[in-house]
Amino acid sequence: MITVIKPGATEPQIQNLITWFEARGLKTNISEGEEQTIIGLIGDVTKVDIDLVEGLEIVDSVKRISDPYKRANRKFHPNDTVVDIGGHKIGGGEFQIIAGPCSVESSEQILSVAESVQKSGAALLRGGAFKPRTSPYDFQGMKADGIELLLEAKAKTGMPIVTEIMNGLHLPMFEHVDVIQVGARNMQNFELLKELGKVRGKAILLKRGLANTLQELLMSAEYIMSEGNENVILCERGIRTFETATRNTLDLSAVSVLKELSHLPVVVDPSHATGKRNLVEPMAMAAAACGADGLMIEVHNNPAEALCDGAQSLTPEQFDRLTKKVAKIRKAII
């Protein structure tokens, strides 16, 4: 349920109403926009007399929300959430590109890629330290050493870093990571999501699962936000369908639907979605055109020798061309 406050209501009046709600065992979520303040109520709202609340001097209206996700819901939070990562903002019209190799392989490799993608316009550096692989015999990542190499690249370039977590027990290793990524396979690892929700001041990039609906994605975001961390970025990375021409099927309609349902930023990963280098650029351009808040692109200085996902990784030269085209599209649609 949401309570819309009339313009001109004083802070003490609003706080008194919040106290009244919380005394009835309800959690409150406050959204202060330019024109109105909304108090979202979470819990057993049957304890609230709607007619009584609507009759209050400061209340404009009261509405029931049937959607199971509350904090991620645009009805609770009409204005776009803008996630600030070291001065680089995502959401609310702010667009950023996250780029780097699928996996960290060496100090020379990650620094070389970091410098090249930064020069081409990427704001954040991605790189896998822990790699969930379908086969137990494939390269699993450098783990803690990989995070250290990412931090070295961050120190030299100033780029915030993005890397994936697979286990809540690994959280201490991520203390200096700027954006913790939850991969598609862990989208419904609810215990992990709850642990990430307790982490304050750190952004969480939540990828859509291979076979999950958008409501399920938003419910996973709700797990994080319900624990107190509202710095969530949603990521569309393709879903598994009957089509075999691409690695997955990139669902660009998800961008528009998610923006209608939620206030959270939405980025698109065309690399994992298509699995093919030649398709990354056109899909990245399409993502920018349909209103995505950012892109996540895999870039490797030598894709032919990459230890992971070389077939979908761009060279630095290809990435530079992509960013120039994306910039033109962004300029045209703004």
The first-to-last residue Cα distance is 34 Å
In spatial order, strands of the major sheet run: 7-8-9-10-11-12-13-14
The helix-and-strand class reads: alpha/beta
Helix segment tally: 10
Mean pLDDT: 94
Poorly predicted regions: none
Can you give the helix content as a percent range?
A: 25-40%
Structure summary, number of beta strands: 14
Gross morphology is: elongated
Radius of gyration based on Cα positions: 21 Å
Tell me the major beta sheet. Answer: 8 strands, parallel, barrel
SSE series: EHEEHEEEEHEHEEHEHEHEHHEH
Strand content: 15-25%
Characteristic terms for this protein:
14 strands, eight-stranded parallel β-barrel, 334 residues, 10 helices, alpha/beta, single chain, four-stranded antiparallel β-sheet
Task: Please provide a brief summary of the model.
The chain has 334 residues and is α/β, with parallel strands linked by helices. It contains ten helices and 14 strands. Strand 2 (27-32) and strand 3 (37-42) form a beta hairpin.
Give an overview of the whole structure.
The chain is an alpha/beta fold and 334 residues long. 33% of the residues lie in helices and 19% in strands. The chain has ten helices and 14 strands. The strands form three sheets. The chain has an eight-stranded parallel β-barrel, surrounded by five helices. Strands 2-3-1-4 form a four-stranded antiparallel beta sheet. Strands 5-6 form a two-stranded antiparallel sheet. It is elongated. The model has no long low-confidence stretch (mean pLDDT 94).
